[in-house]
Amino acid sequence: MEVDHQKIAEEMQKMEYEPLEPIEKKLIAWSISIGVVSLVLLYWISATFFPTAHSM
Questions:
Q1: Is residue 46 within 8 Å of 54, Cβ to Cβ?
Q2: pTM of structure
Q3: Can you give the pLDDT of all 56 residues of the chain as single tens digits?
Q4: Calpha distance 26→16 (Å, rounded)
Q5: 53, 46 in Cβ contact below 8 A?
Q6: Those residues with Cβ within 8 angstroms of residue 28's Cβ, 6 or more apart along the chain or in another chain
Q7: In angstroms, rounded to a whole number, what is the distance separating the alpha carbons of residues 31 and 25?
Q8: Enclosing H/E stretch for 46
């Protein structure tokens, strides 16, 4: 197990820094946005149709 961690660490040190491409940044932003909007929408649906679960 320790040998695997050392090999991984060595390989990561050999790797070059690669900045994110503009399309990758857009995909990350879209993914986060869709996730946040989904959470808000699902919470609203839950609170609207199942109000007893939210009244404590």
A1: yes
A2: 0.65
A3: 667 888 888 988 898 989 999 999 999 999 999 999 999 999 999 999 988 877 65
A4: 23
A5: yes
A6: 20
A7: 10
A8: helix 22-49
Q: Are 47 and 54 in contact (CB under 8 A)?
A: yes
Q: Which long-range contacts (CB under 8 A, 24 or more apart) does 31-36 make?
A: none
Where in the chain does DSSP place strands (E)?
Answer: none
Question: Hey, what are 32's tokens?
Answer: 């986060």
Cα distance between the two ends of the chain: 48
Q: Under 8 Å CB-to-CB from 4, ≥6 apart: which residues? A: none
